[in-house]
Design goal:
The protein has about 260 residues and is of the alpha/beta class. About 35% of the residues lie in helices and about 15% in strands. Strands 2-1-3-4-5-6 form a 6-stranded mixed sheet, with helices on both faces.
Length: about 260
């Protein structure tokens, strides 16, 4: 924890859930934290000008930057591909992927200049294993996973670490946002419906996927387990003290703030 004393951090999507919990833990660990979210009215990562203003304000307040936690994200609907709405798909991709890339691009020069930066991207187990009736969210998290790996390759030789958080079931407002405030749809029974006549193949599902689903349940649940994979994919940790880690990765149960330390080239 002491390693974060005096560190300067930006946390997006910090009005609730994982973002709010991470901001609190970073402050508890000694970091100075600047937060933003659409709900707070100071950051819309889908808007270039909003993002630029936010980053400029954060840098002016913090006087530099050591940590960027790209947490802003959402999902929309729980429908099969043929029933998905284009506006929902666009909002998910623009927020989860393009917004994350925009924040990273604007902050990277300052992280590199500090000689010890750390980027933490909020991914998901849905970026490693797909699940039915969540195509846009799954696509966005696969993109985050791929972008994180490409970013790590681009940063080889530079003093910036990159972490992808592969979250599972966590108690947040994720499902409420997904269904635009319709709390009845967040109930587990609402997730079990399928289009009439749709076929499900069980032979193509791997044992790892079945194991994951049995532990984590469907994405409509209100608890999401979490693990953190570092840029070297050699260690994992929890996002916050109230979050438990889950298979398939072996994990060490330490707060994310403890995992964010001085960068190594």
């Amino acid at each position: 924890m002491a390693a974060l004393e005096g560190k300067r951090a930006i946390v997006t999507g910090a009005s609730s859930g994982i973002g709010a919990a991470t901001a609190r833990e970073l402050e508890r660990a000694g970091a100075r934290v600047y937060t933003g979210s659409r709900r707070d009215g100071n950051l819309d990562v889908t808007d270039s000008e909003s993002t630029k203003r936010f980053v400029e304000a954060a840098l002016a307040e913090l006087g530099g930057l050591d940590i960027l936690f790209n947490n802003a994200g959402l999902s929309r609907g729980r429908d099969p591909v043929w029933d998905s709405l284009e506006e929902d798909e666009r909002e998910v991709i623009e927020t989860n992927v393009l917004g994350l890339m925009r924040m990273t691009r604007l902050c990277l020069p300052y992280l590199i200049a500090e000689g010890g930066g750390h980027i933490v991207n909020m991914g998901s187990v849905a970026g490693i294993w797909a699940y039915p009736s969540g195509s846009s969210y799954v696509a966005s998290k696969f993109a985050v996973h791929g972008y994180t790996r490409a970013l790590r390759d681009d940063l080889q030789g530079k003093p910036v670490r990159v972490t992808n958080v592969a979250a599972g079931i966590v108690e947040t407002e994720f499902s409420k946002v997904r269904f635009k405030g319709d709390e009845e749809k967040t109930l587990p029974s609402a997730c079990s419906s399928r289009s009439p006549g749709a076929r499900t193949s069980t032979s193509t599902r791997s044992s790892s996927w079945r194991s994951l689903r049995s532990q984590a349940g469907t994405s409509c649940g209100t608890r999401r387990r979490s693990s953190v994979r570092t840029s070297r994919e050699s260690s994992t940790s929890e996002v916050a003290p109230t979050i438990r880690t889950a298979a398939p990765m072996n994990v060490a149960r330490v707060p994310i703030a403890a995992a964010i330390g001085p960068a190594t080239a």
